[in-house]
Specification:
By secondary structure, the chain is largely without helices or strands. It has no helix or strand. The protein is globular, with a radius of gyration of 13 Å. This is Pentapeptide repeat-containing protein. It comes from Cohnella silvisoli.
């Protein structure tokens, strides 16, 4: 597995797919995750603030 840190800002990555990825300690600020799918994920210790989970 390749180790790489990404800084993505002001980008549209809609429709992207992440599979078999180690994505620990990520920070999302002002992100639209509408209609995203999360399957078989370890979310222990996750912190969420000001989140809209309707529908």
């Amino acid at each position: 597995m390749k180790v790489e840190k990404l800084d993505v800002e002001m980008a549209d990555i809609s429709g992207s797919t992440f599979k078999d990825v180690n994505a620990q300690e990520l920070n999302f600020d002002n992100v639209n995750l509408a209609k995203s799918h999360i399957n078989n994920a370890n979310m222990s210790g996750i912190v969420m603030n000001d989140i809209n989970l309707s529908e």
